[in-house]
Amino acid sequence: MAQEKGTISIHTENIFPIIKKFLYSDHEIFLRELVSNAVDAIQKAKRLVSLGQFHGELGEPLVQVKVDAKAKTITISDNGIGMTADEIKKYINQVAFSGASEFLEKYKEAKDAHEIIGQFGLGFYSAFMVADKVEIQTLSYQPGAEPAKWVCDGSTNFEMDAGNRSERGTDVILYINEENKEFLEEYKIQEILDKYAKFLPVPVQFGTRTETQRDGEDEEGKPKYKEVEVPNIINTVQPIWTKAPTELKDEDYLAFYKELYPFSDDPLFWIHLNVDYPFNLTGVLYFPKIKNNFELQRNKIRLFSRQVFITDDVKDIVPEFLMLLHGVIDSPDIPLNVSRSFLQADSNVKKINTYITRKVADKLAELFKNDRKAYEEKWSDIGLFVKYGAISEPKFWERAKDFVLLSNIKKEFFTLNEYRDKVAPQQTDKNNNIVYLYATNPEKQHAYTNAADKKGYDVLLLDGPVDNHFISHLERELEKTYIKRVDADTIEKLIDKDEKIESSLSEEQTKQLEELYKSAITKPNMEISVENLAADALPVTITIDEYTRRMKDMAALGGNMDFYSTLPDHYKVTVNANHPLATKILSESSKEKQAALAQQAFDLALLAQGMLTGPDLTAFVERSVKMI
Could you give the CA distance from residue 202 to residue 238 in angstroms, rounded to a whole number? Predict the structure, then answer.
């Protein structure tokens, strides 16, 4: 076969249905695209005025959206630069030709030219997702221009004729099809505009609304009010992230937060983002009050591109641990897919991610340094962010070492270095390892924390949803340091100082005591041992292995650890040979009395562990009453 070369032909009749039906994942996007185009047209007019290339009366910029349910139309109108018939042919009939891109290239040196928000010529065609027919009525700003009309029924055929618009600007009229008649409901349009156009840089009006205004005073001098119809402007054209921090007060940030999240408590603090190199990024991120509930409510940070809402799925831009934050990010440099519906992989995304991580670390370090007391008071809220960041972001951890706090059950706070210095003298074991003890529920674990206190040991409180992972992280990062839950073993074994304690029992008595307690154990997976502990230590201690329990707790949070969640709990029952109760039990004359005392001591240990419930608890109480 002879070699042949040529070009691949792409016909509009083949690609047009794809544009109409599949380019946009959500049909409501059509309104965002058309309103954005209208805003562009007005922004272009402003640029031309500033360049001295348009000498007419600019007037008050305004985009209007109107719904006519009877006529089954939605109209998007603007008073921008309009189009001539030739420009319609160029910008509308040539699919994927972006007028915004051409305008930017032509006037790229103009001041504020970057404010043109349009990026893709395909946006106009999103109208055909919801409309059987689309009509354009337009009049260009150019002197002597004639109004033009363009009509298309969704096929590749169109009609052009003289238009009827008498003022500069453009009307895009959508004749809504039966499948999408929901968009003829005013509440639906209001909802979409609130979502996508809430912060566009040009006023967007959707009908009118009733407003109460003062109307003088009555005969007694009291103010009178009246109801009036005013334009329903749905957007704030200068949201706070477009302003310099020096222009804003705390009240401004709080008011904006309430606008975004009307039912939330006031945030703890916020970070104003503003960078123009090596990428453009503005925004405000808020630290909400979340306590220890680990409210992984994603989609709280909203991404904008030149004040147009894009998405609330920002997992690639914002580090995982900061997905708990609220607020907005606006960047023209974040790459979007052709329908502006989601992000595309790009080096800028990684740079922005790194920048946000650094800014958050800077803010936390500043708060800690400037007012440690206030920082400690906020720790119950911000500790989750910091610990989560330490676990998941190595670069953040490097900074967080200086401001991550540990708190003990006495509600005292320490930095990592401070805590090491505090406990090292008392809590160093025979192998020169420092052992941190912690509780997850001091009330429930009081018997164990009390035993630690008698030894002069300090006990941390680590009861948060990520603390199991945080503990493992600290053990990896801190040299010769182990972290053990206070009920993971007897206190002597938790911090083994190789201190030899002689037994007050003979070998035969020890064996007899062990058998008595074995008969008292009624629960499965319990291993008993009689050990030589201090006389003032508990007579019986029930513990669960630290490693197994920690793995099971992690499995409960998810993360491919299902194997551990299926393992049965395995408990260790340690009987103190040197406690006076041991001698008392063995001195009883009857085996029944010995068994009863052993059972009572074992039940007390179960009670301390929180394991004595239901019928077992009732039986324990009844036995105790009899013994009294």
Answer: 9
Domain of residue 38, CATH code: 3.30.565.10
Query: Over the stretch 403-435, which tens digit does the pLDDT of each residue have?
Result: 999 999 999 999 999 999 999 999 999 999 999
Helix, strand, or coil (residue 405): strand
Q: Give the whole-angstrom CA distance, residue 82 versus residue 5.
A: 43
Burial (0-12, 13-18, 19+ Cβ within 10 Å), 587: exposed
Rounded Cα distance, 266 and 282, in Å? 22
Residue 14: predicted pLDDT? 52
State pLDDT tens for residues 358-390: 999 999 999 999 999 999 999 988 898 899 999
pLDDT of residue 342: 45
The answer to whether position 394 is within a domain reads no
- CB of 572 closer than 8 Å to CB of 523: no
* Alpha-carbon 62 to chain mean position: 35
pLDDT at 13: 57
**Residue 412 sits in the same domain as residue 358:** no
Contacts of 13 (CB under 8 A, 6+ apart): 155, 156
Is 444 in the same domain as 585?
A: no
Strand 169-176 relative to strand 204-217: parallel, antiparallel, unpaired? Answer: unpaired
Q: Note whether residue 501 is domain-resident.
A: no
Tokens 């310099």 identify what position? 244
- Residue 490's CATH number: 3.40.50.11260
SS3 (DSSP) at 184: helix
Q: Is residue 346 part of a domain?
A: yes
- In the chain, the amino acid numbered 170 is T
CATH number at residue 328: 3.30.230.80
| Structural domain boundaries enclosing 484 | 404-494
